[in-house]
């Protein structure tokens, strides 16, 4: 009775200063709901997991030389899990008043259902901002690493936080459409299968409908120059933002906001944005990017800049020029171990990519036939270092890459010793550069161009050389350089020249 | 008025009733109170996932994920099986909670079996993973869900703990493949050499879940009463108005 009287008395006052006060109330409710949402166990767990994943991933030694145009989209996977947790909890928060049967009490408030829905949708925003902080921290950490090259894109970094926003808005919308408690967990299962399990139709492709997926990582084998990526990241961010707004405004509309012209107009605008972004992003790689990809793959010399360090000229895509110092350290060490004319030989280290088949294509590059030219890829650190030093050693011993790729005699011993002996742990470098990570028997030696082949005998001799004093072997290599690099020298003879006694059979390379 | 909970020695005259007769008399009411809409929604999502996989011509790995997803979906539904809005009024009834819980499970089992058969038959034979092993996985998920619900009912006061149990189950399903170390792996791909070993682990998990479920079937004893009997609106505590 008293309550009714109060409501009746209060009603005119609210009607006078309605809109301003109610929006202040919406914001206050949104702040309250956001705080509750942040303290839910699934959300806390998801954020803890996200941060742990970021730290674990960024501390990996193989991540010491990040390429920032890849590092930016590597931030997108983690927020998916956060988004699913937010979906679950936002849904639960909206259904709380139904579950606790307090909907009747709220019905007497001046804050209508649709404004409360708007507050729930707004409460997701701080969580998206928190995700943005995590994503920014991850990217900044990568960018601050001394080995970082390239440049990131803001649109790629926005994708993760926008995905969280979208999932949260979907959770709110779902609660307004279905009051069942099992709906959100079931939707999470479907989303997990679609977006995390890779069951999304056409997932694993680079263009087309795959871009309707909230997160498209296009995780290829090699980094590429940023102007060859051709990823519609900006349109995708627009699409996600439009979709999140559409879901949130639809939730407001279905909970009674359809009387408000402003909400209707905003919904139409958001839908337009989502459709526009959605259509444009699926248009495929632009023709200009395709041309640039062909140019960079076929005639990289026209796109690259060159610098000279000692006897070696390094030509690389401009984003990779900071890495020349690292390449030069390796090439200089290898060349210093060589003897004869190879020691003073002018080399050209050229960075090459083949992106004609798209970002996901892992095509091997054709070995260069130009004398003294060494190919270097776009990745660095870890096994890429002995891979590059082997390429340099191969060119120094055989003359050019094509000739080095078919070496099947005692020269292989010299190549592998030059490549690895100077490294801090030659045996682990040898393990890293062999495809099967073995230290005995025959194995394929990985290379950015054609792989090389080591026989079991050559492996034995090379490992025996690592056990001998470094300077003694180095002196022998220099003294016998001419014979060691003669095509057709047997492994037995090479072992003899280098002072190793090992029972090695004839050189047989089964390719 | 708060109903007394637990079974007091003096209030058990109907224990003389043969259990089978009581159970038979309970079948119809329990059948009516089962959360059929929730279970139906979960089953429908499972069928939808597998059907969609069939429609787009999914490969063996995607099919396996789809089947696991379907199993998880039904398990999420089963997490709501013990939800009972009238829970606090049924605590002192003569038929023990174990009987009622088992009756619920027994009523759902044949339906779930039929559903699972339909799901398996929906998958084309060429991409279907070993049916027995996958049935073991799904069965474990269902028993885990039931065990979770039973634990929540036994140790909690909420009449409808299904929502939390479902969230916990979902979290476990997401985190287990991410966090389990290699030698405890449960979610292995079909061609993995560790498939058999993984399914031995599944069997052990099923046994553990079933044991946990069996241990949590009964109503909590009188020693748990002191807390639960206190009504939040009661007058026995210190005054809240000061």
UniProtKB/TrEMBL annotation, chain A:
This protein's record includes keyword Membrane: yes
Species of provenance: Streptomyces monashensis
Transmembrane segments: 37-56, 76-95, 121-141, 153-175, 182-200, 233-255, 262-280
Protein's name according to its UniProt entry: ABC transporter permease
Residues of the signal peptide: none
Keyword Protein biosynthesis: no
Alphabetically ordered keywords of this record: Membrane, Transmembrane, Transmembrane helix
């Amino acid at each position: 009775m008293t309550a009714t009287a109060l409501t009746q008395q209060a009603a005119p006052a609210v009607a006078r200063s309605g809109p301003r006060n109610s929006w202040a109330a919406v914001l206050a409710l949104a702040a309250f709901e956001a705080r509750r949402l942040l303290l839910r166990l699934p959300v806390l767990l998801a954020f803890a997991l996200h941060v742990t994943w970021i730290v674990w991933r960024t501390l990996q030694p193989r991540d010491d030389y990040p390429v920032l145009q890849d590092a930016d989209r590597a931030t997108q996977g983690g927020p998916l899990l956060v988004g699913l947790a937010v979906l679950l909890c936002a849904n639960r928060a909206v259904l709380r008043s139904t579950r606790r049967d307090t909907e009747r009490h709220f019905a007497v408030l001046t804050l209508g259902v649709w404004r409360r829905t708007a507050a729930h949708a707004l409460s997701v925003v701080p969580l998206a901002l928190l995700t943005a902080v995590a994503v920014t921290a991850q990217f900044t950490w990568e960018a601050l690493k001394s080995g970082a090259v390239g440049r990131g894109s803001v649109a790629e970094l926005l994708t993760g936080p926008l995905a969280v926003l979208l999932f949260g808005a979907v959770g709110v919308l779902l609660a307004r459409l279905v009051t069942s408690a099992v709906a959100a967990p079931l939707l999470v299962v479907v989303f997990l299968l679609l977006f995390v399990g890779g069951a999304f139709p056409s997932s694993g492709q680079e263009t087309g409908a795959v871009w309707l997926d909230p997160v498209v990582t296009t995780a290829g084998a090699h980094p590429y120059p940023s102007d060859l990526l051709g990823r519609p990241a900006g349109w995708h961010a627009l699409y996600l933002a439009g979709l999140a707004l559409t879901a949130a405004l639809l939730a407001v509309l279905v909970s009674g906001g359809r009387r408000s012209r402003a909400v209707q107009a905003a919904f139409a605008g958001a839908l337009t944005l989502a459709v526009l972004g959605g259509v444009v992003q699926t248009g495929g790689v632009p023709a200009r990017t395709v041309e640039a990809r062909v140019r960079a793959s076929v005639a990289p010399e026209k796109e690259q800049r060159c610098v000279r360090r000692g006897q070696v000229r390094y030509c690389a895509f401009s984003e990779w020029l900071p890495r020349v110092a690292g390449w030069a350290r390796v090439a200089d060490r290898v060349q210093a171990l060589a003897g004869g004319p190879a020691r003073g030989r002018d080399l050209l280290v050229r960075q090459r990519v083949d992106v004609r088949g798209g970002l996901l294509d892992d095509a091997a590059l054709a070995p260069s036939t130009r004398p003294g030219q060494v190919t270097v890829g776009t990745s660095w650190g870890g096994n890429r270092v002995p891979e590059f030093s082997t390429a340099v050693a191969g060119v120094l011993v055989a003359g050019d890459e094509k000739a080095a790729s078919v070496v099947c005699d005692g020269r292989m011993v010299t190549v592998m010793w030059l490549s690895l002996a100077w490294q801090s742990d030659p045996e682990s470098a040898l393990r890293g550069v062999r495809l099967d990570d073995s230290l005995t028997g025959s194995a394929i030696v990985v290379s950015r161009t054609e792989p090389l082949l080591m026989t079991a005998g050559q492996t034995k001799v090379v490992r025996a050389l690592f056990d001998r004093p470094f300077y003694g072997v180095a002196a022998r290599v220099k003294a016998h350089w001419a014979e060691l690099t003669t095509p057709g020298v047997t492994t037995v003879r090479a072992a003899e020249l280098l002072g190793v006694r090992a029972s090695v059979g004839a050189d047989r390379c089964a390719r | 008025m708060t109903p007394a909970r637990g079974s007091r020695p003096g209030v058990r005259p109907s224990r003389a009733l043969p259990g089978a007769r009581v159970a038979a008399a309970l079948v119809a009411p329990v059948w009516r109170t089962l959360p059929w809409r929730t279970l139906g929604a979960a089953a429908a999502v499972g069928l939808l996932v597998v059907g969609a996989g069939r429609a787009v011509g999914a490969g063996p790995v995607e099919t396996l994920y789809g089947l696991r997803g379907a199993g998880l979906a039904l398990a999420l539904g089963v997490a709501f099986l013990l939800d009972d809005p009238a829970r606090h009024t049924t605590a002192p009834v003569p038929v023990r909670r174990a009987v009622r819980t088992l009756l619920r499970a027994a009523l759902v089992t044949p339906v779930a079996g039929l559903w699972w058969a339909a799901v398996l038959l929906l998958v084309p034979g060429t991409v279907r993973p070993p049916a027995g092993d996958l049935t073991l996985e799904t069965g474990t998920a269902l028993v885990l869900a039931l065990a979770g619900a039973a634990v929540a009912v036994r140790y909690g006061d909420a009449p409808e703990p299904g929502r939390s149990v479902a969230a916990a189950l979902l979290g476990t399903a997401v985190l287990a493949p991410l966090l389990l170390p290699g030698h405890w792996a449960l979610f292995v791909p079909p061609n993995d050499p560790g498939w058999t070993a993984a399914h031995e682990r599944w069997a052990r998990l099923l046994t553990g879940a079933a044991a946990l479920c069996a241990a949590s079937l009964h109503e909590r004893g009188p020693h748990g009463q002191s807390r639960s009997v206190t009504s939040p609106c009661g007058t026995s505590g210190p005054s809240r108005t000061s």
